[in-house]
Amino acid sequence: MTTHNNNNTCAINDRDVYIVDCVRTPIGRGYNNGALHSVQPIDILAHTLSELLKRNEKVDRSLIEDVICGVVSPLKEQGANIPRFAALKAGFPNNVPGVQLNRMCGSGQQAVHFGAQAIKSGDMDIVIGCGVEMMSIVPMGSDWQLDNPDFTHGFKFKVLHQGVSAEMIAEKYNLTRQELDKFSGRSHELASIAQKNGYFDSQIIPVKTPTEKLVAKDEGIRVPVDYKKMASLKTPFKENGRISAANASQISDGCSAVLLVSGRKVKELGLTPRARIVSCAVVGSDPEYMLLGPIPATIKVSEKSGIPIQNIDLFEINEAFASVVLAWQKELNIDMSKINPNGGAIAHGHPLGATGCILMTKMVNELERSNKRYGLQTMCIGFGQATATIIENCSFKPIAKL
């Protein structure tokens, strides 16, 4: 593990990986009437990349050695290696390459992992990990073949919809619909408090639509919470079930980017890092109980880092479904007050490929705001995978005990 100086802020070690900055767009509802629907994926990604570098003038665009982008539906408007095209559109020089990847819901977080691994290995010094998903333009499932019996034949497990898996998890962990709806309401309420208090303002880069409308706030947050209405919604995955639209993540549009730099380059360019990448992990898990992957992923990343789970100060777990978060919390006995303190995807939405970087951006900012040291991010992934990352707040200052 990296040594630290006397006041417990990050020591800058040459081959360690640092988050120098991170930004995200507001998250729009992923429908034709959503705030960001009129913005093309390539344009919102180009805007995000450009704004990230405008905020970091010491990093010349020619120094970027790769733009790694998570895209879960990488076709049509989101295909053709969109990060390469977006980087060029953003004015990056020709020498800057780009590549897109699809690890389903973990794609944005995996982009950060791949960038961090390239830096840690010594192959690169500066990488942008990013993600984009405009679900109102390229619908979820556009690249699937799950309705094709030739594709699904021959597996030794049932090929299930994620919502069915979420129902199975709720049943396995004895989670009632009331518990799930209560957690969902908590997400909206915390996100609303964060939005009203301006916690998101410094991390969000406003987006101007083709009609000159400026979008600057997450669109999906709904308060006051109407628990009676939530309880009345249908449970589409099981008759009289527990999973409804109210306790699942929203279909959304959005983009985010994270600037990763080696310690060597941080010192050379005189940069001020915001966080250090401590440890990364990815796991495979049961493809039927496909959304339980965050449990082994959290354990694995904790063991790799040498930091016990109980010593983590803040958790960002993707709220794909409320049952995923509550099962993980129950299994690992995690203090609820540490989990998604500014709400999650149930409230602000889940623009698939972008969410991993969005959660990372939220976590960096909240660690700084609350003066907490370690944050852990984890995400469930369809058909049994999960990603996890631990980061350290470089501006953490211990409070002296009286």
Automatic annotation (TrEMBL):
The active site is at C105, H350, C380. Residues 17-262 form the Thiolase N-terminal domain. GO terms for molecular function: acyltransferase activity, transferring groups other than amino-acyl groups. Residues 272-392 form the Thiolase C-terminal domain. InterPro entries: Thiolase, Thiolase-like, Thiolase_C, Thiolase_CS, Thiolase_N. Keywords: Acyltransferase, Transferase. The keyword Transferase applies. CDD domains: thiolase (cd00751). It holds the Pfam family Thiolase_N. Belongs to the thiolase-like superfamily. Thiolase family. NCBIfam families: AcCoA-C-Actrans. This is Acetyl-CoA C-acyltransferase. It comes from Polysphondylium violaceum. The lineage of its organism: Eukaryota, Amoebozoa, Evosea, Eumycetozoa, Dictyostelia.
